[in-house]
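Support case: (R)-mevalonate complex. Customer-provided input:
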Amino acid sequence: MDKENKFYQLTFAERLAWLREIGALSADEAAALSGAAGLTPAQADHMIENVVGTFALPLGIAQHFLINGKEVPIPMAIEEPSVVAAASFMAKLARAGGGFTASATAPEMIGQIQILDVDDLNAAAERLKSGADELLSLASSADPVLLKLGGGPRKIQIRKITASPIGPFLVLHLVMDVCDAMGANAINTALEGMTSAVERISGGRALLRILSNLADRRVAKARCSIPVEALAFNDFSGEDVRDRIIEAWAFAAADPYRAATHNKGIMNGVDAVVLATGNDWRAVEAGAHAYAARGGHYTSLSMWSKGAQGELVGELEMPMAVGLVGGATRVHPTASAAVKLMGVSTASELAQVIVSVGLAQNLGALRALATEGIQRGHMALHARQVAIAAGAPEEWVAPVAEQMVNEKQIRVDRAVEILEEWRTR
Ligand code: MEV
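Agent response - structure generated as follows:
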C-alpha cells in the first residue's frame, strides 16, 4: 500500500511488477500494457486497410480513484504531460469527500433514417407511428443475440425537419438498447433491415440510415463533493480555492470560447480512457460537444457549486457511447488488458468510470488555472519532451529539462544549444 501511494516514484518495470504482484494483471496482460507484446502487425492488418505499422502512445495509470466505493486503477493513453498526474491528484482530493458517485442511464442508442420525397409529412408521420410494431419487429430480427441478452429495439420516434436547405422532410429514430456494445453496427444493421418497410409505409425515399452520435439517451453522470479543508494549499484557503473554481466554471458556463477549452480539459481525461480501452473516441467527442450545445448555445459539460456545508460540489453529465464487446476492445490486447485492470464488467460501469475521470480532470485544470496557473507544473513536464525533441540521449533528458526550466527558456533551440555545450565540454 505504501508502494501504491508512491506509484509515480517507481520505475517503469517496478510499476508493472507491482501490478503483477497484487494480481491486477497476468504476465501476458502486463506484456500487452508494457509494449513488449500488444497489437501485432498481423492483428493490425485485419483491423484497417493499407496497414504499414502500429502507433504507440504512453499508457499511464491514474491512481486513487474511488468510484461508487470501489478502487479503480485508471489506464490512460495520452501524449500530453500532466494529465495522468492531475487525474491522480484530484482523485486523491475527491476521496476526502468519499470519492466519486457515478451512474448511467440504459445503453440506448439512436439510429436515424432520413425520409425524403414525402407528399404529406403529417400523414406519412402518422402512418409510420401506426406501423411502429412492424418496424420494431424488423429491427429485432437484425440481431437475435442482442435480444437474448435483454437488449434490442425499444421505440420508434418520428421527427419533422422543417427548416433545411432542401425543404422539409421526415426523420425516423430507432431507439435501441445495445447492452455492452458501443452499438454502431447493431443500429446500422437494424436500420438497413427496416428501409423498404419505411419507404412502403411513408411513401417516401429513405436516404441516410445511420447511427446518431448525439447519444443523449445514453448518458453517464459523476459527482464529487470535496470538503473545503481538503482544498487548501500554499497560501490559498480552502474557501478561496472553492470560490475560485466556481468562478472559473462560471466563465465556461457563460462563454463558448472558454467552454470549448474547459470541455477539452474534461476530454483529456475522457478520451485517454476511451482510447486505452479500445473505444471510438471520435464518437465520444462528437457526442460530448453536441450535448454541450443541446440548449442552443455551447456551454460547459460540468457544473461546480457550493454545497450546504460549504463543500465544493462538482457534477459532470455527458453521453458515453462506449462498449466492452465488438469494436477493438476485445481484439486489441492492450485494450483488453486495460479493461481487465479496471475490473469493469459492463459498458455501463466503464461509462461511469470514464465520466468520473473527466470530472477529476476538469477539477485539476480549474484548480490550477484559478490559483497558481498551469504553466509551472506543465512546463516542467513539457521541458522533457522538448529535450527529447532536441535529440537528448535518455540520461540527459531530465538534466537538460531542468536547466531549461531554471532558465525559463523551454524551447527546442535552447535544448540543442545546451546539448552542444555539454557535448563540447
Ligand atoms: C489543456 O490540455 C487543458 C486545459 O486548457 C483545460 C482548461 O483550460 O480547463 C488546461
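The first strand starts at residue 59 and ends at 62.

Case will auto-close in a few days if no follow-up is received.
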